[in-house]
Backbone:
C-alpha cells in the first residue's frame, strides 16, 4: 500500500527512481531515499527493489498502529529485508527509537529482517555524484543488449574513460554503454574521485 506522496516541500522532495531491478519505478519521498536507491541499485548483492511494498500492523501502548516501510530489497540468495530511511537526528529521538524497535520486533516475528538507514550509510559526496551520473547515463542499456557483449569483447582489461568512450563511438556503439559497464560493475573505477577522461577503468569479470 503506497503512502500518498506530496510532490514537494522545502525539506523533502518526492519523485520516481528508474530501476533495472524492478520493472516499475520506485517512489521516494526525500533526497535521502533517492540517494539510498542509487546505492541499492549499484549493489550487486541486491537483485530486486520495491518501494513501499506493504503495510503491517503493530501494537504500541495498547493501540494498534499501521506502518509502511520505505522499501524492500531481495538479495541474490532470496532473502528479503525491509528498510526505513530516516535522517539520523530523527531516528535517534526517543519516540522514533522506541517506535522502530517495536516495528523491527514485528517484522522479525513475521520472519523478515528490518533495518534503518541514515545519511551515515551513504558513501562520500563525490562517490554519490558519480553514481548519479552513471545511473542517469546508463539507462536504456540492458544486460541482454548486444552492445554490452560487444564492448566487453572489444575493450582491454584496463582502459581510461576517454579511451573507452572513443573506442565505443568508433564502432558505432552508444557511449552510454561505458556508463552501463561501470554502474553494473563489469568495469570498476575509483568513485571517490571525479570521473574525468584519465579515470582508469578495470575489468571486473573473470
Residues:
Amino acid at each position: 500500500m503506497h503512502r500518498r506522496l506530496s510532490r514537494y516541500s522545502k525539506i523533502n522532495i518526492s519523485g520516481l527512481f528508474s530501476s533495472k531491478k524492478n520493472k516499475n519505478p520506485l517512489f521516494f519521498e526525500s533526497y535521502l531515499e533517492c540517494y539510498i536507491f542509487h546505492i541499492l541499485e549499484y549493489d550487486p548483492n541486491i537483485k530486486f527493489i520495491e518501494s513501499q511494498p506493504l503495510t503491517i500492523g503493530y501494537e504500541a501502548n495498547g493501540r494498534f498502529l499501521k506502518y509502511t516501510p520505505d522499501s524492500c530489497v531481495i538479495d541474490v540468495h532470496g532473502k528479503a529485508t525491509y528498510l526505513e530511511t530516516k535522517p539520523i537526528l530523527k531516528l535517534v529521538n526517543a519516540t522514533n527509537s522506541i517506535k522502530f524497535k517495536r516495528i523491527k520486533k514485528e517484522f522479525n516475528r513475521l520472519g523478515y529482517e528490518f533495518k534503518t538507514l541514515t545519511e551515515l550509510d551513504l558513501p562520500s559526496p563525490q562517490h554519490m555524484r558519480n553514481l548519479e551520473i552513471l545511473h542517469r547515463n546508463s539507462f536504456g542499456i540492458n544486460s541482454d543488449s548486444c552492445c554490452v557483449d560487444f564492448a566487453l569483447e572489444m575493450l582491454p582489461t584496463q582502459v581510461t574513460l576517454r579511451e573507452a568512450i572513443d573506442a565505443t563511438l568508433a564502432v558505432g556503439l552508444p557511449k552510454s554503454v561505458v556508463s552501463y559497464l561501470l554502474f553494473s560493475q563489469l568495469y570498476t573505477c575509483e568513485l571517490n574521485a571525479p570521473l574525468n577522461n584519465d579515470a582508469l577503468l578495470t575489468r571486473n569479470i573473470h
Q: What stands out?
A: Confidence is low (pLDDT under 50) at residues 1-10. The chain is about 35% helix and 25% strand. The first helix runs from residue 31 to 42. The longest strand covers residues 46-51.
